[in-house]
Amino acid sequence: MKRGRFESWFSIVALLGVIGLAFVAQGLRGSPEAAAHSVASTEDNGRRGFFLLLRELGYAPIEWRSAPGSLPHGEHLLWLPQAPKPWKPRNETARGEGEHPNLLPGHALANYTSFVEDGGTLVAPLSKEMLEFLTGEFGLAEAGLLELRGEGKRETRRVRLDSGEQLELSLDLSALVQPLPAGSPWREVWILEKNEGEAGAESLAALECPLGAGHVLLLSEDAFLDNAEIGKQQHALAGVRLVEQLSRGGQLLFDEYCLGTWEPESLFALAGSPRVFLLTVHALLLLALFIWALAWARAFPRDPPALAASSPLERAQALARIWRSSGREEEVLRRAPRPKRARKSFARR
């Protein structure tokens, strides 16, 4: 095999090897570590069981690990396991609050508000951190009207759904919401049934507030959906009833971004995105043309002749030595014309 041909095929094999290594590296990328209340976790505080239950029921749940700016628009359901926090790069140095306000707009927590206003439904457990998020970055001033009960312990109690069905749940009574004042925009969804002889108004385990074209539904807690609790009492049925009530035909998303498991889009996902798809196709065509040129390089008929490796004087001297050694001195004289006197002197030699 000629050297040029070998180099061409070697370049092609090396290029294909680099592309193959990129695919292998993409496939071997480790999955992020599962956090508490994550639907990817099989630990006692994870929610993989609830995720698989909804999949068996045909809801096709999705682990959402992208930034909130990429949330779909429409009648979709998003489940927040905890209050989200603004994302910052690891090498971020200490800065003021107002510095670089829109460094990464896709990570702005205001995108959750846009998701709900465009028709989405947000489900979240109620806590002090969640109330701060709702009244702050989320912009739901009505959340400031809610007051937690603040007393009580965990008990197994009956909860009345707005459909009239009653379920037994293990709830932390201190996390329940106080009765709503008159004219409140919130709607009672789950109401705690009082025991015999229990005084006071009925506390709320779930309530809903409209926002734009969507809704925000808050649970006093959702720890009953953890792997260690979902098989007890009627916890699994309560989770399914809630999804049945809130699902409006869109996607069912479990937010893993707020748990710190955000994953940037892979190289192949970016290459196939609508914005750069044509650029990707153009680059692939150029790559194919480059490979074809390496594999099928041939001498073109109109190419100029190759330059000699030696000078004309060296070639003439070499030919003269060859002819002289072979006894063809006349050929030397014929090819190199000289004056007559020079020819005769050369012949006498």
CATH topology of the largest domain: Rossmann fold
> How are the strands of the biggest sheet laid out side by side?
1-9-2-3-8-7-6-4-5
The number of distinct structural domains comes to 3
Indicate the radius of gyration in whole angstroms. Answer: 39 Å
User: How would you state the average pLDDT, rounded?
Assistant: 81
What is the CATH C level class of the largest domain, in words? Alpha Beta
What's the architecture of the largest domain in CATH terms?
3-Layer(aba) Sandwich
Q: What is the total tally of β strands?
A: 9
Run of helices and strands:
HHEEHEHEEEEEHEHHHHH
Instruction: Note poorly predicted spans.
Output: 93-102
The amount of beta strand, in percent, is 5-15%
Helix content: 25-40%
Largest sheet: 9 strands, mixed
- The general outline is rod-shaped
Distance between the termini: 49 Å
Structural class: alpha/beta
Count up the helices: 10
Describe this structure in words.
With 349 residues, the chain is α/β, with parallel strands linked by helices. It folds into three domains: 3-23 and 274-295; 33-87 and 106-141 and 148-262, 3-Layer(aba) Sandwich (Rossmann fold); 312-348, no CATH class. Helices cover 33% and strands 15% of the residues. The chain has ten helices and nine strands. The chain has helices at 3-27, 48-56, 110-117, 128-135, 235-246, 267-271, 277-295, 312-325, 329-335, 340-348, and strands spanning 61-64, 77-79, 121-125, 154-161, 166-172, 187-192, 204-211, 214-219, 252-255. A nine-stranded mixed sheet has the order 1-9-2-3-8-7-6-4-5. The longest helix has 25 residues, at 3-27. The chain is rod-shaped, with a radius of gyration of 39 Å. Mean pLDDT is 81; it is low at 93-102.
